[in-house]
Amino acid sequence: MGLIEDRALVEAALFVSGRPLSVKELSRALGIRSLDYLEKLIELIAAEYAERKSAIEVVHVLGDKYVMQVKQEYSQRVIHLMPRPDLRTGELKTLALIAYLQPIEQSKIVKLRGSQAYEHIKNLLNMGLVYAEPYERTKLLGTTQKFAELYGFPENDPIIIKEAFKKVVHAEYSDLIEKLEGRKEESAEESE
To answer: Over the stretch 95-133, which tens digit does the pLDDT of each residue have?
Structure first.
């Protein structure tokens, strides 16, 4: 294919994914072998959207990933039109815990929710609702801007999100939260 077709294909992939995609992931999915060429195509698309002052932007996020998204200044005005992801009850509970306890180690979520949490976290990552970054021998989890937009938060501020989820999480997991918060206090006292 030529430049125009390749550019259009990359643009289509970013549009339909609805989540951040790495250059390697795009390369495998689209059959474009050169990662440098692929990055230049993404930069070209991003520049075209910026130049025409579109409500849509292509931004570099999470290391080597790119996402096509609605600009922040427009997202709050159209949030009510955005489809909500279909989450099973278990995934919703795992998401609520991540939102409330963030940043939280994946291993702690698994201790609270059981081994099915691995699958829940994988699905939440694929939907772009949470992020995971390496932390010691596990991953650190938290919510994303997409999560904030979908659930009506003005920004992805952990303090605001924690407060909103406090009642929900305490009602469902009061005994577990007490144990976790008790351990945090004990650790703080031991380190003093």
So the answer is: 989 998 999 999 999 998 899 999 999 999 988 899 999
Sheet holding 104-105, edge to edge: 104-105, 138-143, 130-135
Of 93, 67, 82, whose CA–CA distance to 148 is shortest? 82
- Overall pTM > 0.85: no
CB contact set of 114 (below 8 Å; sequence gap of 6+): none
Cβ–Cβ under 8 Å, residues 141 and 109: yes
Place of tokens 């909103």: 164
Q: What is 93-108 written as a DSSP string?
A: HHHHHHHHH-SEEHHH
Give Rg (Cα) of the chain: 19
The tokens for 135 are 């932390």
Cβ count within 10 A of residue 43:
13
